[in-house]
Specification:
The protein is an all-alpha fold. The chain has 13 helices and no strands. It is elongated.
Length: 310
């Protein structure tokens, strides 16, 4: 498996874990309101491969099971997810019994047509339904506790994956979900554990990811925020000017693009080896910017002269 594939699969694992946390909490909220249905539970857990918990279980098996490369924390995560899956499947069976058999029981229980033998069966149904209701309530509490512990273990995995080049952008884009799971303070502690300068480094690395995808406007905004926090960060200054230049260029604002490019190239970047590809790109862009700026200037002069002759 290539490094790129591993990075992508790690992010998919984190994303599906978040889906499990959200869907589990949704099921618990609905149960407390007396609105939990079998269809909703199937979004959380099923045996057909469509639920988030089933998908997470399969991801863990693929990445961590029967491989010597998996760390202890990864194998522990795999085991925990597998255990939650099997406990959740029991809940699925309980809700199925209550949703499909309890209404039938309610229709039959007071029927005058029941024989003595049928009344005995109805009594057994009543006991089974009460057991299912009790197991569902207790089981949801157990699964909620296990999923909460899984969320704590996910933080360990995220710390392990701090070198994943997709991670910063994913965390940035899903900040609301992380805050919902860990709280505002817990979220900030997490990114401070992962990155030396916490949120500043997170924004810088996310900006690099957007730049690689050529989302110049979004990258520019992030680099600008980093520069406002850390004005001594020369790479961030350069990348802000770099993305500004290309953002203006693709919007046909050539004179502004040229100004940003000239400012970027004036920065002391000789010792910044990881920036040299971007420096070369700006230098290659300059002749085109100069040509387009000159052409726009000539067009403006011609329009002005035509206006004066009218």
């Amino acid at each position: 498996m290539t490094s790129l594939n591993i990075d992508k699969k790690q992010i998919d694992l984190i994303s599906e874990s978040i889906c499990v946390f959200k869907t589990c909490n949704h099921c618990i909220d609905l149960h407390q309101k007396g609105q939990l249905t079998f269809v909703t539970v199937e979004d959380f857990v099923d045996d057909r491969g469509k639920s988030c918990l089933y998908k997470l279980k399969q991801m863990c098996h693929e990445l961590f099971r029967n491989t010597v490369e998996a760390s202890y924390k990864e194998k522990f995560y795999d085991i925990t997810v597998g255990y939650i899956f099997h406990e959740a499947m029991k809940l699925r069976e309980c809700i199925y019994q209550l949703e499909y058999y309890k209404p039938e029981y309610n229709l039959l229980v007071d029927s005058p047509e029941l024989s003595a033998g049928e009344n005995k069966v109805i009594h057994e149904f009543e006991l089974l339904i009460k057991k299912a209701e009790k197991r569902l309530t207790e089981g949801l509490k157990e699964v909620k506790t296990l999923v909460g512990e899984l969320a704590a273990h996910l933080k360990d995995l995220i710390r392990t994956y701090r070198g994943n080049y997709l991670l910063a952008r994913f965390i940035f884009e899903n900040e609301r979900d992380f805050v919902a799971i860990y709280g505002r303070n817990g979220y900030h502690r997490l990114i401070e554990d992962i990155y030396d300068q916490g949120r500043t480094t997170l924004m810088y690395k996310a900006g690099l990811s957007y730049l690689e995808s050529e989302y110049y406007q979004t990258a520019r905004s992030l680099f600008h925020k980093v520069v406002k926090i850390d004005r001594a960060n020369v790479p961030a200054q350069f990348l802000y000017l770099y993305t500004s230049a290309f953002n203006c260029y693709f919007r046909n604002r050539f004179s502004m693009a040229q100004i940003f490019a000239e400012e970027a190239l004036a920065l002391p970047m000789d010792e910044q080896q990881d920036m040299q590809t971007h420096v070369a790109s700006l230098r290659a862009l300059m002749p085109d910017l100069e040509k387009e700026t000159k052409r726009n200037s000539q067009s403006k002069e011609e329009r002005d002269r035509a206006y004066l002759r009218v």
